[in-house]
Design goal:
3 domains, 19 helices, globular
Length: 496
């Protein structure tokens, strides 16, 4: 019942982070906003998420785990109601930020509850259960969102949270308890450090989210936020390391497996969030799929991840954690490289097998990676460590999205110029096509469309293969992970 309780809150928050992406066009039309303006519905939620995540340890110690988790669910659920009833852009952005504050705490808190509540021998299974929500949720979100937007209306994507949130809130009060090792903190908040953290992490996420839309460093706003972020993060890190009782304990990075695991987590976030953004765009812009069809094309990957989450814990006892992670990264790299050979004639089954490979790989990566990364962390630091680990993976996703968007745009411009240079009368094929065309104006327009389409395909294929190379080059980091071993610090907790 404890597992079911925390998974309710987790899945609700994770799916909601991606479900709105397919509804943005409908929201924009309904609320009288431009596409650029409505993007703040997604950006505001993520900004609030990343600011709350590193505070997980301090907030848990301040209010107690049960109170904190229940309050986070309540905030998320109430904000969901007001998001669905919003009638202006400003109103929905404000409530999405509030929703993000509640949602940002649910994922790391759920992870720490599951990790501590299971004995060491069962933690791979616990992380597999957690991974079902963390990995499958982002893939299911667009599918569910496409169905709701196509057959109903966008407010329903928020209203469906209400019964789930109410059930999760009541079950949290009943089944979630405060571990005896968590001592209530009486220390006040370091407001200067908090302000520096908010400016640093919030500024970095803003740059990653909005950089492509504002043409990166040609925008004075992006330049300003980059400087603010760099100064804020530097000040925050120095201040927390010098503080004997920091509200964000960065000293958890002294454990080698935790540090190495976070680097690999950035790569996993890069692949998971980055590809989950560009794949629907590829399906819709190149293959002319609707939102529902695009969601269904993503579904095989989600199902494969669910299957591998069941297999992975059993595999660990045979081949070990590091071998499982390496196998997963190799499979993901191969699937991404295969996807880099797709073109505008690709059908469902051309997409199916690369997506299955990527989905299977995530299970083999996530379960052992989470188990090994957190294995050395004592229970007293677990809440803070899971918050940092989740934040790093989220920032890795933001980095992946920003990098892939930039690569696609730049590569498309380059390929379009290269292809257009060959569409001249000196090219015999072009000359023959134009000479035999009944309407030369329409023929020229058709050639222009084909150049743009082919440049787009080449750009997406390039991005898919860059993803493959990122995973391949990160494999040596796996060797820095230590083999998990049971110790007293990692023993199952006693509940009050």
């Amino acid at each position: 019942m404890l597992t079911f309780t925390v998974m309710l809150g987790l899945v609700m928050a994770i799916i909601d982070a991606s479900i709105v992406n397919v509804a943005l066009n409908d929201m924009a039309g309904n609320l009288g906003a431009s596409i650029d303006e409505i993007a703040w519905v997604a950006t505001g939620y993520i900004l609030a998420n990343v600011i709350v995540m590193p505070l997980n340890g301090w907030l848990t110690a301040k209010f107690g785990r049960r109170t904190f988790y229940a309050a986070s669910i309540a905030i998320f659920t109430i904000a969901s109601f007001f998001c669905g009833t919003s009638r202006s852009l400003t109103e929905i952005v404000i409530w999405r930020v509030v929703q993000g504050i509640g949602g940002g705490a649910l994922q790391p808190t759920a992870q720490s509850i599951l990790f501590e509540s299971y004995p060491p021998s069962k933690r791979p299974q616990a992380m597999a259960i957690f991974g079902l929500g963390a990995m499958v949720g982002p893939a299911i979100g667009p599918t569910l969102g496409g169905y709701i937007v196509q057959d109903y209306s966008w407010p329903l994507i928020f209203f469906i949270n209400l019964p789930i949130g109410i059930a999760a809130f009541l079950m949290t009060l009943r089944y979630v308890h405060n571990p005896s090792h968590i001592q209530r903190s009486t220390r006040g908040m370091d407001w200067i450090g908090l302000a520096a953290m908010m400016l640093g992490i919030g500024g970095l996420q803003y740059v990653l989210q909005r950089g492509q839309q504002e043409d990166w460093f040609s925008s004075s706003t992006i330049v300003a936020w980059t400087v603010i972020s760099a100064v804020g993060l530097t000040f925050f890190i120095v201040r927390e390391l010098r503080d004997s009782h920091p509200f964000v304990d960065l000293r958890v990075f002294r454990w080698r497996s935790f540090a190495a695991g976070n680097v690999i987590g950035i790569v996993a976030g890069f692949g998971l969030f980055g590809l989950n953004l560009i794949l629907p765009l590829f399906f819709q812009n190149v293959l002319n799929m609707g939102p529902w069809d695009a969601g269904m094309a993503l579904l095989p990957g989600a199902i494969a991840t669910a299957v591998s989450m069941v297999i992975a814990p059993r595999l660990l006892s045979i081949i070990g954690s590091r071998a499982s992670i390496i196998i997963g990264m190799v499979i993901f790299a191969l699937g991404s490289w295969w996807m880099g050979g797709l073109d505008q004639t690709a059908g469902y089954w051309n997409i199916f097998w690369p997506r299955v490979m990527q989905g299977l790989a995530l299970g083999f990566i996530f379960v052992p990676l989470t188990t090994v990364t957190l294995a050395e962390i004592p229970n007293s630091a677990m809440a803070g460590a899971t918050g940092i680990f989740t934040l790093v993976r989220q920032l890795g996703g933001g980095l992946g999205i920003a990098a892939l968007e930039l690569l696609i745009q730049r590569r498309q411009d380059f390929d379009q110029q290269l292809l257009a240079a060959n569409v001249t009368l000196s090219n015999p094929n072009v000359a023959q096509f134009l000479n035999t065309a009944a309407n030369k104006a329409q023929a020229l327009a058709y050639l222009g469309q084909q150049v743009t389409l082919n440049a787009t395909v080449l750009a997406y294929d390039y991005a898919f293969r860059i993803c493959a190379l990122v995973f391949a080059f990160a494999i040596p980091m796996v060797l820095l992970l230590r083999k998990p071993k049971a110790n007293k610090a990692a023993a199952p907790v006693h509940l009050e």
